[in-house]
Backbone:
């Protein structure tokens, strides 16, 4: 989702504004063979309220808490996958919050912990999300999530955002017991949707996720809401845009 520690700090400060940037056309014609558009959670759901809540609960210290929490959240996910000591993303998020509170020397009461964790079940879509997703669905694309979020997290956020019926599948990498960018996680979309790799366009929020999906073999669209450079991983996305409206334009809907 987020690309580097610096990028995490940017979002965690809860001051991110969607940057306008042009779509870079891919060398291939995307519309001809793509049958499904598969999304990470954060091109659709806005994470900023989680970090705003941290600052509300810990005035003057919430940004630091949020920064540390966010960093450890993904480090723990990756490390648990690599070390074969898997824990789902909800557990990883909870463990990372515990570490962050200790690291920032904050007293994390049960009530505050519950509120911060609950915020991950009450995310709202970015302003451009519902309209863009509806346009894609109406144009005949199959829509699905492929996220490190657990199934419960995905279902709660979809149900609470008025998007029931937009997505054919809510695929959690928990089914593979591996977090992205592990190839086993990306393989799930092929298996669940019963499509060929080239028939799927993967939509990422983090540059690392775009690179991981591209390395796996998916066509990729990076929703670069933070206006960041592409990762130096030898796997540039097929196209880049600032919002899901740019994705709609890329697919010529």
Residues:
């Amino acid at each position: 989702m987020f690309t580097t520690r610096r990028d995490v700090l940017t979002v965690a400060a809860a001051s991110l504004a969607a940057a306008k940037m042009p779509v870079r056309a891919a060398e291939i014609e995307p519309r001809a063979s793509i049958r499904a558009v598969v999304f990470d959670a954060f091109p659709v759901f806005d994470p900023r309220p989680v970090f705003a809540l941290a600052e509300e609960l810990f005035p003057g210290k919430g940004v630091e808490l949020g920064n540390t929490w966010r960093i450890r959240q993904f480090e723990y996910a990756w490390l648990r996958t690599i070390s074969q000591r898997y824990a789902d993303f909800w557990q990883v998020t909870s463990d990372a919050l515990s570490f962050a509170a200790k690291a920032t020397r904050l007293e994390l009461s049960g009530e505050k912990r519950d509120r911060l964790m609950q915020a991950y079940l009450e995310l709202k879509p970015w302003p451009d999300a519902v309209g863009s997703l509806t346009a894609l669905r109406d144009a005949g694309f199959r829509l699905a999530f492929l996220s490190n979020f657990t199934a419960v997290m995905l279902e709660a956020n979809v149900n609470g955002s008025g998007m029931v019926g937009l997505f054919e599948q809510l695929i959690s990498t928990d089914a593979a017991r591996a977090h992205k960018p592990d190839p086993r996680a990306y393989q799930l979309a092929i298996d669940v949707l019963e499509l060929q790799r080239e028939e799927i366009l993967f939509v990422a929020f983090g540059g690392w996720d775009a690179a991981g999906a591209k390395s796996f073999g998916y066509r990729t669209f990076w929703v670069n809401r933070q206006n960041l450079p592409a990762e130096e991983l030898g796997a540039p996305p097929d196209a880049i845009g600032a919002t899901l409206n740019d994705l709609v334009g890329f697919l010529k809907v």
